[in-house]
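Hi,

Apologies if this is the wrong queue. I'm a grad student, and the batch job for Beta-glucuronidase from Agromyces humatus produced an output file that my downstream script rejects. I'm not sure whether the problem is my script or the file. Here is the sequence I used:
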Amino acid sequence: MLKPQTSPTRELVNLDGLWQFAVDPGTPHTLWQATLDTTLEAAVPASYNDLFADPAIRDHVGWVWYQRTVRVPRGWAGERVFVRLDAATHEGVVYVNDTKVAEHVGGYTPFEADITDVVTAGQEFRLTVGVNNELTNTTIPPGSITVTDDGGRKQDYLHDFYNYAGLARSVWLYSAPAVRVTDLTVMTDVDGATGVVGFDVETTGADTVQVTLRDVEGTVVGSAEGIAGVVRIDDVKLWQPGAAYLYTLTAQAVVGGEVVDEYTLPIGVRTIEVRGMQFLINGEPFYFTGFGKHEDTAVRGKGHDNAYLVHDFQLMDWIGANSFRTSHYPYAEEVMEFADRHGIVVIDEVGAVGLNLAMGGGIFGGQTKLTFAPENINDDTQATHAQAIRELVDRDKNHPSVVMWSITNEPASNEPGAREYFEPLVNLTRELDATRPVTFVNVMFANHEADLIADLFDVICLNRYYGWYVDSGDLAAAEQKLEAELIGWQEKFARPLIMTEYGADTVAGYHSIYDAPFTEEYQTSFLDMYHRVHDRVEAMIGEQVWNFADFQTKNGFARVDGNKKGVFTRDRKPKAAAHALRARWTGLKK
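Support response: The file is valid. Your script probably expects a header line. Output copied below for reference.
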């Protein structure tokens, strides 16, 4: 889905701000039928959970409602008019006045509706958005709902981050011509010093399409005509990690010799290849340094914030990180665009976390039932998962920063049914995009001897916590076990390995002369131990610490004010480990 933009043929109105807000009292919901009777206002974009001083809102399970009045610009007469939501977590429904115009399941990808026939240029309409935060065994991510003794509803889930919900990303009103560009796919390659840009354009009935490529100075470096083709760039400047170069591709829909629509896309020319135990970008071995992250800040929850976007990327640059994983869901498109512009490499992950009934909230074992079973993770879950992959690839396929698709985090890949569940999804991902490797993130329970699916993937990502959940406080024993397992993976699969999670909960300001768990000294020693092992294993092509910053988790005895594995605090203050990582990563040569 193309992101809305302003162009000579398109206009865009941002609908962010304060919206009327109400919690739905129950089903069937009817609050959309009139002006919301509420004194509450909620910020958009933001999760709603931490905005109010009311635990009933924070812990609400079910639908909430946002509403505002919107005026269609009077100059849009004769144009198609659309409303677009960058995300609604986890299910959304949209009404224009009393007409339902859109509904969507999946909390981290966009959806839109053509509302031309129910609005009038120059006039106002009532825009109402319902958002449902419920997670079940057939949603991605999954969860379960129980009814308490007092008749309340309680949401549970198997991922270790808080189930923030609401309109966490922007809402837009935009116009476009009836005949327009509806999709654009770009594939890049290199032939010697020449860049090769393949394109595929979809329209709503244009006679033809004109494609033009310009460099950063605006000079035309290539052009072509047709809905599909190739443009070659002499003396191409490549998009490189840490040194981004973006060309501008403009696609013009033409009818009767006249340009009726124009869409512009920044593109980077680069190649990706997995060769043996190496990951190559532009033919050169690449070693991933960076983090698993979260979209998580105080008050906003998962609400996108450009100030935090800039600051987080500045901290990653300061520490020497060249990459991150969108753990455990697609991030806001602004994040991907920023990575494109600044040469940050991204492992792009779908929201399939918690497909493992042995996890017990992410840190404890105690499996009592099979994960892949008709009553648990089943065919309906798989269909939802497949749709989430389709929407992720459709949204992010043109980002040069995205070098790999991750289709799940810590699934029960050692259990019966895992291969039958995941093999079709791997095949689907490759059908949707044959230009990028496909990976998954393996959990500790499913080591190289027990895992049933790793051979399906191009790169194997590992989350390991030797020295924390296993052998806590005994880094010598942890080092031996970690190295033995990594060598086992290398010998069995002979393909690239990335450590996508390794870390220890750390209370900022807690110190000891000993390697005592939860101290800043232990976190630093823990990471140093992993790095020694990484440097001794040939197949290791990257390390992404868990986590960039402390983040909020669900209530419970296992966490005190969230997960504290960040090398930065939740408000982005460095712990001692941040300085140790900076020393390693700014000088790392591997």
